[in-house]
């Protein structure tokens, strides 16, 4: 338990860590402000509380009940999605929605209302949450669902932990026929092709996502790979190795720079010779390619990195993306993994839920100080101009004014905030 | 399938070990002080695959209550073949130096209660002709050190007791395992700064289950503590007494 965030920026100077281990117990005494902290996979400072206390929930990692007939699971909030997969896949159940890492807690998945490659059919994580218990600093406990304390449900879903501690939750898993996915990868040369592929795949494919070469310029701008997949009927196949690679230490400098980026992106684009390839993939490499490398965030060196994920409304999506890609390519500060996906139209449940109709782009940038921050501000101009938004779970630098523009309903959260809870992110964007 | 009684079942190492057993479908009786936490752990183990779980509350220094708890476990699980003793407190050394009451209480919890529980279970296992006894002692019991010799000497008593018990039960088909964890990141050690030597309870738990299955006698967890303690045990006393450890 380190009390840091995944981007390793910013670094909190001082936080007091308190471990929660008993879901029935009252919160331990703390002075100043507190914030629930799960597995620390939020990228910026939404899971940090510099100068205050973190209520670490990983000790709340017990299952409560699982019905293998209905797929309804009750568990404590510190259970990892990885634990759920270990329990459920063998019994024919899978997460209804999963982000790109399985090392997040259930509480964190609710508090950020995470989404996945199936957003266009399944919506956000909270769509599959029957309810959860919310424990406040005054000792009160509420069961929150879409029908009971529905206002508290809407405030706590994507509420960044600011409304209280989620102690346990009830989820509905989805039925699958095994751990395999049938995947199809299409190479595309520009954003026109991407949008056409995405629209053509939405109905028949549960999972769609694209990787985009954000070092490409000119005619190559917007090229990438589009991957669509469905759970497969196959019950067996080559199991991936369980061996987990790791980055044992933090190199003194970021290994990600302009040179390595262009080379990687170009190689990756040409990895696939033909236009289309088919494969049967186990869910681990398909959903969680980076989880295979423990502590991969260390490759960005001691200064850490910044992730930027934005969404642009449908009408502005293509022009906006082109402008974003032009600005990124011009800066020379590209991203290893630029991920592009078209969200569906299902309404998000949380006041601060990020997903909304449109195209979402996620990028990693090594922290090169001022230059990086200036680039991200320039990207914000495009996103704000298009009426889009940036994802708080990934943010470490957004100006308060921008946040309030992206989430105009932000202050309707106010009556639900726990008066003794706060976070680095919240102070930054509201004070 | 094992029928397992765990004393001190809410401890982090015991809970992690119980999950290993549950995942392969064993039956477990969990004993501790806090009924609510025991119930939460029992639910969890049930979801993870335990065929049967039972719980009982016990303060280990209530010696008169020991027999009742062992009977209950045997009844609930339909027999008993494995005992894991995992309870204990990390003694505040300064307090135990200042107060004989503290010293005696710590010995009751960490040494006498362990031996008191082992005695009737050992007799039952000897009589039935099979069984596995595993007890969490500590590397601290290998040599008394100024920083924690009250805790260490209680653990030394447990280790010596287990060594004798192992010899005695050898012929009866009962295995006795002495577990000596090094530094483990648990609530018991939450106030210590953590370095590279610290292990996670889940890793120690895997080591415990493996050692029980293999019928080992003494196991250091993680393994490298056997080397560290080999050195510490063999430092000559005239040097050792001048070192601060």
List the helices and strands and how they pair.
The complex is a heterodimer of chains A (431) and B (245).
Chain A: E1 16-19, E2 34-37, E3 53-56, E4 63-67, E5 72-76, H1 81-88, E6 93-94, H2 106-111, H3 119-122, E7 129-135, E8 141-144, H4 150-156, E9 165-172, E10 174-175, E11 180-188, H5 191-201, E12 207-212, E13 224-231, E14 245-246, H6 258-270, E15 276-282, H7 283-287, E16 293-294, E17 305-312, H8 314-331, E18 338-343, E19 358-366, H9 370-385, E20 389-390, H10 400-406, H11 424-430
Parallel strand pairs in A: 1-3, 2-3, 14-16
Antiparallel strand pairs in A: 4-5, 5-9, 6-10, 7-8, 7-9, 11-13, 11-15, 12-13, 12-18, 17-19, 17-20, 18-19
Helix pairs in contact in A: 8-9
Chain B: E1 3-7, H1 12-23, E2 27-32, H2 35-48, E3 52-57, H3 66-77, E4 82-85, H4 93-98, H5 100-128, E5 131-136, H6 149-169, E6 174-181, H7 201-214, E7 218-221, H8 225-234, H9 237-240
Parallel strand pairs in B: 1-2, 1-4, 2-3, 4-5, 5-6, 6-7
Helix pairs in contact in B: 1-2, 1-7, 5-6
Describe the structure.
The complex is a heterodimer of chains A (431) and B (245). With 431 residues, chain A is α+β, with helices and mostly antiparallel strands. Chain A has a domain at 180-399: Alpha-Beta Plaits (2-Layer Sandwich). Chain A is built from 11 helices and 20 strands. Chain A has helices spanning 81-88, 106-111, 119-122, 150-156, 191-201, 258-270, 283-287, 314-331, 370-385, 400-406, 424-430; strands at 16-19, 34-37, 53-56, 63-67, 72-76, 93-94, 129-135, 141-144, 165-172, 174-175, 180-188, 207-212, 224-231, 245-246, 276-282, 293-294, 305-312, 338-343, 358-366, 389-390. In chain A, strands 15-11-13-12-18-19-17-20 form an 8-stranded antiparallel sheet. Chain A has a 5-stranded antiparallel sheet with strand order 4-5-9-7-8. In chain A, helix 8 runs antiparallel to helix 9. The longest helix of chain A has 18 residues, at 314-331. The two termini of chain A are 29 Å apart. With 245 residues, chain B is an alpha/beta fold. Chain B has a single domain, classed as Rossmann fold (3-Layer(aba) Sandwich). Chain B is built from 9 helices and 7 strands. Chain B has helices at residues 12-23, 35-48, 66-77, 93-98, 100-128, 149-169, 201-214, 225-234, 237-240, and strands at 3-7, 27-32, 52-57, 82-85, 131-136, 174-181, 218-221. Chain B has a 7-stranded parallel sheet, with helices on both faces. The longest helix of chain B is centred in the middle third of the chain and has 29 residues, at 100-128. The model of chain B has no long low-confidence stretch (mean pLDDT 96). Chains A and B meet through strand 4 of A and helix 2 of B. Chain A: Keywords: FAD, Flavoprotein, Oxidoreductase. Chain A: Belongs to the oxygen-dependent FAD-linked oxidoreductase family. Chain A: InterPro entries: FAD-bd_PCMH (IPR016166), FAD-bd_PCMH-like_sf (IPR036318), FAD-bd_PCMH_sub2 (IPR016169), FAD-linked_Oxidoreductases_BP (IPR050432), Oxid_FAD_bind_N (IPR006094).
